[in-house]
Amino acid sequence: MCNLYSVTSSQEAIRALARAMGEYRDLTGNLEPLPAVFPDQMAPVVRTAADGARELGMMRWGFPSPTAFNGPALVTNVRNTASHWWRPWLSKPATRCLVPVSSFCEYLGHKPAVPHWFAQDEARSLFFFAGIWRPWTGTRGTKAKPVNGEHLLFSFLTTHPNDVVKAIHPKAMPVLLLDELARETWLHGDVEAALALQRPAPEDALRIVARGEKQDWATPPALQFRKKV
Question: Which CATH class is domain 5-226?
Answer without folding.
Answer: alpha beta
